[in-house]
Design brief:
Number of strands: 5
Oligomer: single chain
CATH class of one domain: Alpha Beta
Low-confidence stretches: none
Mean pLDDT: 94
CATH architecture of one domain: 3-Layer(aba) Sandwich
Strand order of the largest sheet: 3-2-1-4-5
Strand content: 5-15%
CATH topology of one domain: Rossmann fold
Length: about 180
Protein backbone atom coordinates (compact mmCIF):
# COMPACT_ATOMS: atom_id res chain seq x y z
CA UNK A 1 0.00 0.00 0.00
CA UNK A 2 1.35 3.35 -0.91
CA UNK A 3 0.88 6.23 1.48
CA UNK A 4 -0.40 9.75 0.97
CA UNK A 5 1.94 12.50 2.04
CA UNK A 6 1.27 14.80 5.00
CA UNK A 7 -2.42 14.47 5.68
CA UNK A 8 -4.01 15.57 8.94
CA UNK A 9 -4.71 12.87 11.51
CA UNK A 10 -8.18 11.47 12.13
CA UNK A 11 -9.85 10.39 15.36
CA UNK A 12 -11.67 7.07 15.41
CA UNK A 13 -14.49 5.42 17.26
CA UNK A 14 -14.37 1.65 17.76
CA UNK A 15 -16.47 0.56 14.75
CA UNK A 16 -14.14 1.43 11.87
CA UNK A 17 -11.12 0.05 13.75
CA UNK A 18 -12.84 -3.26 14.48
CA UNK A 19 -14.35 -3.66 11.01
CA UNK A 20 -11.12 -2.86 9.18
CA UNK A 21 -9.02 -5.04 11.50
CA UNK A 22 -11.41 -7.99 11.04
CA UNK A 23 -11.06 -7.53 7.27
CA UNK A 24 -7.25 -7.31 7.61
CA UNK A 25 -7.44 -3.78 6.20
CA UNK A 26 -6.39 -1.70 9.22
CA UNK A 27 -3.30 -0.39 7.36
CA UNK A 28 -5.63 1.62 5.11
CA UNK A 29 -6.02 4.05 8.01
CA UNK A 30 -2.27 4.53 8.27
CA UNK A 31 -2.03 5.07 4.51
CA UNK A 32 -4.85 7.64 4.52
CA UNK A 33 -4.08 9.52 7.75
CA UNK A 34 -0.58 8.50 8.95
CA UNK A 35 -1.84 9.04 12.52
CA UNK A 36 -5.14 7.91 14.01
CA UNK A 37 -6.07 9.14 17.45
CA UNK A 38 -8.36 7.15 19.73
CA UNK A 39 -9.84 8.11 23.09
CA UNK A 40 -8.92 5.86 26.02
CA UNK A 41 -12.54 4.55 25.97
CA UNK A 42 -12.07 3.30 22.42
CA UNK A 43 -8.78 1.61 23.32
CA UNK A 44 -10.53 -0.11 26.24
CA UNK A 45 -13.35 -1.31 23.97
CA UNK A 46 -11.23 -2.40 21.00
CA UNK A 47 -8.09 -3.74 22.65
CA UNK A 48 -8.65 -4.54 26.33
CA UNK A 49 -12.16 -6.00 26.04
CA UNK A 50 -11.34 -7.48 22.64
CA UNK A 51 -8.38 -9.39 24.05
CA UNK A 52 -10.52 -10.63 26.95
CA UNK A 53 -12.93 -12.02 24.36
CA UNK A 54 -10.12 -13.56 22.32
CA UNK A 55 -10.78 -11.32 19.30
CA UNK A 56 -7.81 -11.40 16.85
CA UNK A 57 -8.65 -7.87 15.63
CA UNK A 58 -7.77 -6.58 19.12
CA UNK A 59 -4.19 -7.74 18.59
CA UNK A 60 -3.95 -5.89 15.26
CA UNK A 61 -5.17 -2.67 16.86
CA UNK A 62 -2.81 -3.14 19.82
CA UNK A 63 0.10 -3.67 17.39
CA UNK A 64 -0.76 -0.41 15.59
CA UNK A 65 -0.73 1.37 18.97
CA UNK A 66 2.68 -0.16 19.75
CA UNK A 67 3.94 0.94 16.31
CA UNK A 68 2.83 4.45 17.21
CA UNK A 69 0.53 5.33 14.32
CA UNK A 70 -2.57 4.79 16.45
CA UNK A 71 -2.25 7.08 19.46
CA UNK A 72 -4.43 6.92 22.55
CA UNK A 73 -5.41 10.07 24.36
CA UNK A 74 -7.43 10.98 27.42
CA UNK A 75 -10.24 13.35 26.51
CA UNK A 76 -12.25 15.17 29.14
CA UNK A 77 -15.74 15.79 27.85
CA UNK A 78 -17.02 19.24 28.60
CA UNK A 79 -20.44 19.31 30.25
CA UNK A 80 -22.24 21.06 27.39
CA UNK A 81 -20.93 18.58 24.80
CA UNK A 82 -21.72 15.64 27.10
CA UNK A 83 -25.33 16.80 27.63
CA UNK A 84 -25.91 17.39 23.91
CA UNK A 85 -24.48 14.00 22.99
CA UNK A 86 -26.58 12.20 25.63
CA UNK A 87 -29.70 13.93 24.27
CA UNK A 88 -28.74 12.59 20.84
CA UNK A 89 -28.43 9.08 22.32
CA UNK A 90 -24.68 8.75 21.84
CA UNK A 91 -22.20 6.71 23.84
CA UNK A 92 -19.42 8.44 25.76
CA UNK A 93 -16.75 7.21 23.34
CA UNK A 94 -18.65 8.66 20.36
CA UNK A 95 -19.04 11.96 22.19
CA UNK A 96 -15.32 12.15 23.00
CA UNK A 97 -14.42 11.37 19.38
CA UNK A 98 -16.67 14.15 18.15
CA UNK A 99 -15.60 16.70 20.74
CA UNK A 100 -11.94 16.13 19.84
CA UNK A 101 -12.67 16.23 16.09
CA UNK A 102 -14.64 19.45 16.54
CA UNK A 103 -11.98 21.15 18.66
CA UNK A 104 -9.13 20.09 16.36
CA UNK A 105 -11.00 20.35 13.04
CA UNK A 106 -10.16 16.82 11.92
CA UNK A 107 -12.17 13.92 10.51
CA UNK A 108 -14.10 11.67 12.88
CA UNK A 109 -14.18 8.01 11.85
CA UNK A 110 -17.66 6.78 12.80
CA UNK A 111 -19.98 4.05 11.53
CA UNK A 112 -23.12 4.53 13.62
CA UNK A 113 -25.71 6.67 11.85
CA UNK A 114 -26.90 8.65 14.93
CA UNK A 115 -23.29 9.66 15.66
CA UNK A 116 -22.68 10.63 12.03
CA UNK A 117 -25.87 12.70 11.98
CA UNK A 118 -24.88 14.48 15.21
CA UNK A 119 -21.41 15.16 13.81
CA UNK A 120 -22.85 16.66 10.63
CA UNK A 121 -24.98 19.09 12.64
CA UNK A 122 -21.73 20.34 14.20
CA UNK A 123 -19.91 20.53 10.87
CA UNK A 124 -17.54 17.71 11.79
CA UNK A 125 -16.26 15.82 8.73
CA UNK A 126 -16.93 12.11 9.08
CA UNK A 127 -15.92 8.96 7.30
CA UNK A 128 -17.09 5.43 7.99
CA UNK A 129 -15.63 2.05 7.13
CA UNK A 130 -17.12 2.11 3.63
CA UNK A 131 -15.96 5.67 3.03
CA UNK A 132 -12.45 4.59 3.99
CA UNK A 133 -12.56 1.91 1.26
CA UNK A 134 -13.80 4.44 -1.26
CA UNK A 135 -11.16 7.04 -0.30
CA UNK A 136 -8.37 4.44 -0.38
CA UNK A 137 -9.47 3.48 -3.90
CA UNK A 138 -9.75 7.12 -4.99
CA UNK A 139 -6.25 7.84 -3.63
CA UNK A 140 -4.92 4.72 -5.42
CA UNK A 141 -3.82 3.16 -2.15
CA UNK A 142 -5.66 0.00 -3.19
CA UNK A 143 -6.99 -1.16 -6.54
CA UNK A 144 -10.69 -1.31 -7.39
CA UNK A 145 -10.44 -5.10 -7.36
CA UNK A 146 -8.94 -5.12 -3.85
CA UNK A 147 -11.55 -2.60 -2.64
CA UNK A 148 -14.39 -4.75 -3.99
CA UNK A 149 -12.96 -7.85 -2.27
CA UNK A 150 -12.69 -5.87 0.98
CA UNK A 151 -16.26 -4.63 0.54
CA UNK A 152 -17.46 -8.23 0.26
CA UNK A 153 -15.45 -9.21 3.33
CA UNK A 154 -16.73 -6.22 5.32
CA UNK A 155 -20.32 -7.03 4.30
CA UNK A 156 -19.87 -10.32 6.17
CA UNK A 157 -18.51 -8.50 9.25
CA UNK A 158 -20.92 -5.57 9.61
CA UNK A 159 -24.54 -5.13 8.61
CA UNK A 160 -25.01 -3.45 5.25
CA UNK A 161 -28.41 -3.16 3.64
CA UNK A 162 -28.56 -4.09 -0.04
CA UNK A 163 -28.93 -0.47 -1.16
CA UNK A 164 -25.83 0.71 0.73
CA UNK A 165 -23.82 -2.28 -0.52
CA UNK A 166 -24.79 -1.57 -4.15
CA UNK A 167 -24.11 2.16 -3.81
CA UNK A 168 -20.67 1.54 -2.28
CA UNK A 169 -19.83 -1.05 -4.95
CA UNK A 170 -20.88 1.37 -7.72
CA UNK A 171 -18.88 4.23 -6.18
CA UNK A 172 -15.75 2.06 -5.96
CA UNK A 173 -16.17 0.96 -9.58
CA UNK A 174 -16.42 4.61 -10.68
CA UNK A 175 -13.08 5.54 -9.06
Amino acid sequence: MKSKTSSPPAISNAGPLIHLAKANALPLLKALYQTVIIPQEVKTETVDKGKQQGAPDALQIEKAIQEGWIKTTQIKLNKEFYEASKTAGLHTAEATVMQYAHQNQITALLDDEPARTFAKTLGIPTRGTLGILIQATKNQIITQQKALKLLDKISEIMYLNAQLYKLTRKTIQEQ
